[in-house]
Amino acid sequence: MHKVLKKWMMLSIACLLITSATLSVAPTAKAASEDTILKGRIFGDPESVATPITRAGISGAIVGKEDGRDVFYTTVNAEIASFQVVDIKTNTLLYNFPLEGIQQAWSHVITPDGSVYIGGIRTSGQSKGILLKYSPETKTVVSIGEPIAGEKSIWSLTVDDQGNVYGGTFQSGKVFKYDPVTNKFTDYGTMVAGQEYVRSIAYHDGYIYAGVGTTGNVIKLGVTTATQGYKQSIAADLPALLGVTAAEVPFAYDMAVVGDLLFVKFQGGDIMTLLFYDLDAQQWLPNKVGKDSVNGTGVGVFSFAQLVTRDNKVYIPANGFLTELDLTTFEVTPLVKYGTSLRGAGWIEFDHLDGFEGESLVSMKANGDIAIFNTATKALYTMPSALIGAPNPIHNIEVGPDGNLYMSAYPAGMGAVFNPRTLQTTNLIMEQAEGMVAYGNDMYLGIYPGGHVYKIDTTQSTPTAKSVFTIGEDQDRPYIMKVMEDKIIMGTIPGYGQLGGALTIFDPDTVKYEVFRNVVKNQSIVGLAYKDGYIYGSTTVHGGLGTTATERSAKIFVWDVANKRKVTEFTLDIPGLSNPPMISGLSVGPDGNIWGGVNGILFKMDPTNYDIIDYKNIYTDINNYGLWRPYHTHWGKDGLLYMDLADRITVIDPKTMEHVRLVKDSIEVKFMTIAEDANGNENIYFADASDMGSLRMIPVADVEYEQAGKLKLSAPERAEYNETISIALETDQASELYGFKANVRYESDKWDVVSVTSSTAWSKEGILTWSAKNGVISIVGTQIKNSSLNGNTLVANIELVAKPLSAASVFTLLKDSEMIRADGDTTGRTHLLGTDRTASVIIGSPNPLDINGDGKVDSLDLMQIASQIGTALQDGNRHMDLNGDMKIDIADLALVGLEALE
User: Which residues form a coiled coil (predicted)?
Assistant: First the structure.
């Protein structure tokens, strides 16, 4: 039984509070920060729980000589990339140089003086290409600088006889020169108008040959005094050689000069074909090396950075083999099974290695392993990587059917599985997964490039990614994957130079699938949800790389599954939203409605009539957001919505639209999900742009309130002259609330206080008294017996009558308002509100066009609203926003003018 002492003590305290401004007999108990609590859930500080994918991942390498030793020069891609030098014969790391501000390097080139130039790419923050130089004499790396402002990457490098360095860029498809003597850059401009890439480059006899994409082309550019001003395409014969139209010629992806021949590999779609241009005769040869499924895997020619020759033969990576190409007959002979590109190549003597005496050909794999080929005996020996690995950026995170987190990385090649219950990590071979979804016991992966679908059987002790099917239809990036009853639905981005994504519906049991392209013309699909036989999709206006959007606004579409047809498509009708490039994050909420995100706006849509039921512009500073990567939406067991809205971790109460933003100092949250720990509690897991190699976690727990809670006011937005309104006094996250005193300041010249009445919840086991004096309403309430209140509850209604015809008013719940817990008789503590809380009410004429409230609409109203045009909305002028577009402008003035004229 509750102590009788407590009952009478609380009544005594209540009586004292009615005449006292405050009663704080002990310090206020410490509470969690307000911005980390929502609906009884508290969100802790983020912590790194794993570095799941650590390895040496490289994009390119080159063989050179340093201090008489044969070496590999390469750059390990990472959040902070590192340039590394490896002694090939001894397989030892000689030097390691961190490259601050650089994340990747695709190309390296050696000048005649032995200097190594590195085509660095900065991808964090504002992407840009940076040229760097390594000196084998001083053993230092220096940044030369940004060759062309605005270009986002350096894809290719070459060098002339004088030591000048040339490069090809992405964003505008330009070629540049760096002169080490003058230390100056030359911008030769865009090679082909509208084409964004110079993906490959080579120098020969005064000319640069630039390999262009996304629509393939080869430009011959004069760069010496004798050849300057010359710029011509030499691509006229390419369509016939490749068997495509001119518009279908793919990327000129790789390039090298071998003797008097220019080797160019074209790659895109189902083409991976090597062609040959005779530099002396200035014509393409009829010979080519393409897909060969008889003598190889049929994949075509892989990439190369260096090519080496011997006895009039050159060695290329083709159809899953190191392949010998006869330069006289152009016959190809597969030598050694080798299913990857040649990242650098050279002839090195390995007399100490049995079976590889004399010169052997060497190259480097994507993980830094050195491959040694005896071309005579057709033998292969692999030396393990001597490179220092680094955390690889996490490229996706999703929860599997086993409750584990599945992650892929960029660059591709390795993934990881993290168990949030045991904190153990397992690595697996895995390509870059743009999207993931759990179905049955399997984890399905949408793989880029190529639009492939893989799966992992999560019941196996060793996770292995296995190919299931390829989407086709020129689709490249499966960014969104969702379960639809016994099917999986996927939304994709097309390949390079393509517009028009696709909706794919896949049956895992029969392994059959259907692809519906261009559901929304020239747009890609980045949002999917399913309910009652219909798919709700959303789009981005963007297509694959190398395209320009042709449509103005992203859309939502509805797909009838049974009849395999689009029911409708439409733009979002949300005030203030204009032509957003992307809508995503679609999900069916617990209320059965469709939820989603656009820019910084969260919205809720009725799935039957497509009306926007509710929305909240959470991040008003976000506009024109989105390319491909969708918002990730997750509904917690606690009923809250977890979302990386505008790349910011946001937790929302779907009933009230209240929200908190977590990790406020984040540059950009790339991926996020929620998963259960060993106690069954759901925490937030994410990867952030500031440290992409780390899996980070925000612990989430129920709040253990130390305070009684807080009070707040809720009021209607408007009142008319002489109207009686009710202001609600409510608890906010109360815990064992027993008594309170609320001091509410009001403007007595604008309001008459009628009464303060107790709510049903409070009066059931409690009493309430009040008084109004000098513009302050003091309300005191206490519970009796064993009663106390918890959570968010109405405790009292304040009734008032509006006195003026037109005014703006503010009610303030004063910071000295107090609350008392049920244990107050033993702790002696009361809990201060601490900060003022306000609610605003506009008192207006029954006619909203009567701005000054004098009972008529005339020139005086026009003058008053005209004086406010262009000013920010505030409590004092909000009633002048007559059309509700969140601004006072000529449109509002016009409404008053029309009424005044009548």
Answer: none
